[in-house]
Design brief:
This is Histone-lysine N-methyltransferase SETMAR. The chain is α+β, with helices and mostly antiparallel strands. Helix content is 40%, strand content 12%. Strands 3-2-1-4 form a four-stranded mixed sheet. α2 crosses α4.
Length: 256
């Protein structure tokens, strides 16, 4: 049989299986017979066994059943196993299914442009003094701090003797009361931790005062080593509209 004539459709495959079932042939014998004739274009044994069972149960139609609301999968369309589909996608097409990476913020075009400009300003400031400038970097970030967090399952584990009942743990929700903490740190450690007072709004003036406190928190000895200058960077998008401009002794960069 030529290659062209051996390429039967799924409906034709099922018609052949139906014919052999009517003759009383077993699924294994049907599969071996179809492979000997159709060779590589023969259906899989799983497909032969499935349709042989359906025809033995009295099914007459060789058409697919309607699937309202559910799309046909690749495996069903090609009449191959799901494992084979996975092998083709991963080994031959060289694709893999991955989860989307989590990012803390969705940056707007303006945010992206501001980050780009801040990075250019920083590179211009650094020049060839990379080691010196790294000692001058002060990073700031903000986080919500709750009054208490319930223990995790791992944290609440206890040693017990065999036969003893496990300890009970009541379900506790995270504290609704929380404070915003602003942390400044450099290469030597934490410089300043500020807790926003309840009822206070984090605005430009408040943030500018924090920047001044962070500068003042560095020791005189440190200032002598770093030429009395600090570079401020932020870990998140600034929602306060706060700007920072250093005095004549140094530079200040507040960017995203």
């Amino acid at each position: 049989m030529s290659a062209e004539s051996s390429n039967l459709s799924n409906i034709e495959h099922r018609a052949v299986i139906k014919y052999f079932v009517k003759k009383g042939t077993t699924p294994k014998e049907i599969f071996e017979d179809m492979v000997s004739v159709l060779q590589e274009s023969a259906p899989s044994y799983t497909m032969v066994e499935k349709w042989a069972r359906l025809f033995q149960q009295g099914r007459e139609s060789c058409e697919d059943d309607a699937r309202p609301g559910r799309p046909v999968t690749i495996a069903e369309e090609l009449q191959i196993s799901k494992e084979r589909v996975g092998e083709i996608i991963q080994e031959h097409i060289n694709m893999r299914k991955i989860s989307a990476s989590w990012v803390p913020k969705m940056l707007t075009p303006f945010d992206k442009q501001r980050r780009l400009q801040t990075s250019k300003d920083f590179l211009e400031l650094v020049g060839d003094n990379i080691e010196e400038i790294c000692d001058r970097i002060v990073t700031v970030d903000e986080t919500w701090v709750r009054q208490y967090d319930p223990e995790s399952k791992q944290e609440s584990m206890q040693w017990t003797k065999k036969g003893e009942r496990p300890p009970k743990k009541f379900k506790v929700q995270k504290s609704a009361s929380k404070l915003m903490a602003t942390i400044f740190w450099d290469s030597e450690g934490v410089l300043l931790i500020d807790y926003l007072p309840k009822g206070t709004t984090m605005n430009g003036q408040y943030y500018a005062n924090l920047l001044a406190q962070a500068r003042d928190s560095r020791t005189e000895a440190t200032w002598e080593v770093i030429a009395r200058s600090a570079v401020f960077t932020r870990q998140c998008i600034c929602p306060h509209g706060a700007g920072f401009e250093a005095g004549p002794e140094g530079h200040g960069l507040l960017g995203n």
